[in-house]
Fold:
Amino acid sequence: MLLNLDPAPRREMISLTPLIDIVFILLLFFMLTSSFSRWQQIELLTPSLSSDSQTPIIRVLKLESNQGNVSFEGQMLLSQDANKLAALIKQEPKATYVITVSKGIHTQAVVTLLDNLKQAGAYQVSLAGVLP
Structure:
């Protein structure tokens, strides 16, 4: 009687080298095809301590709607009335203008108001919290 003493077939090992190559190729592909958004910032002047003994003038503007309607001392300034806003700032250009915002106002409306105030000649602009 003959015995069959052939060794059992060896199981082939899976090579990880091609897998690592594919991962690096995918990583390179996604790095090269991704796009990055450019961030922009708005320059705001911060108040500084001065030797002036004058009491600072503070004007509070309340942003009422996303269309840019602003109320100031009970007077409503519509977004189309850029001349009224410019006239208000010409009265006191060195005053500090504080912007308060109603709930639900978009950030773009606040940024637009900041731009309008700066173009009208406002020297110091500050943001206050959201009003209830």
Q: What stands out?
A: The two ends are 99 Å apart (CA to CA).
